[in-house]
Amino acid sequence: MTKQFLRFTVLIFISVALFSSCKKTHPLHAYPDNMRLLNFTKTTTNSTSPSVTVYENYRFVYDGYNRVSQIIHTKNDGSSNLISNLTYKNDTIYDTTRYVNQSTLIEVDTFVTDQKGLISITYEPGLKTEYTYLGKLLTRKATSSTDYFTYTSYNANILKATNSLDANKNTDCTYFTDKFNRVGDYLQLNGYLKYGFNFYQNDNLIWKLIYPNVTVNIDYVIDADNKITKTTALSVDAAGRTTTEVFDLQYEQFK
């Protein structure tokens, strides 16, 4: 059981809200406001020898309020398949994860939201993280008074993440100036996978991430309705080794 999946499960229903919050006028086709993410597959390959390909699938079930109530995660690398159930009570979300077809409890994480619906505190076993925003944009993520990230933004896009203790965690961000942010953005998808929430609500789609030792280039396949159907990220490290991540997204209509 990975922390990535646990963090991914929380508040993914925000993807539905993002269809509205990121909706913009297009000269030929309007972005659909009655579509939500049904599932996606993630295929990861690398250039190491021997090369390994990992396939993952995430399936989402929604409740009557159009919030994700269940997520099923399967993977081909021999790790356990997981199912997560989300319970919403006032400003708190409880994320309960078990093995598929088993009653054994793996973990319960708790997430507290602020008045804007943004996650302000996450509680995981042995870890408390606090988040600060300016409007919808993340400005700080702290696990202690000395260990934290600060985020610098310009024109409604986060340009840089700076870690207080380790410069190797610093990140510079570049965006497509002609593509607005929507479900399928690479930061958003990996925000779900890593944090369980889209902290990176930028105005534009991310194009490139530059770390001290790795550069990530991202590309998108966008259909006639402006929906992202495929997200591809190519990571190249300082030694020239590559990792390719391909996300294939499927949607469903809702009333």
TrEMBL record:
Q: Which organism is it from?
A: Flavipsychrobacter stenotrophus
Name used for this protein in its record:
DUF4595 domain-containing protein
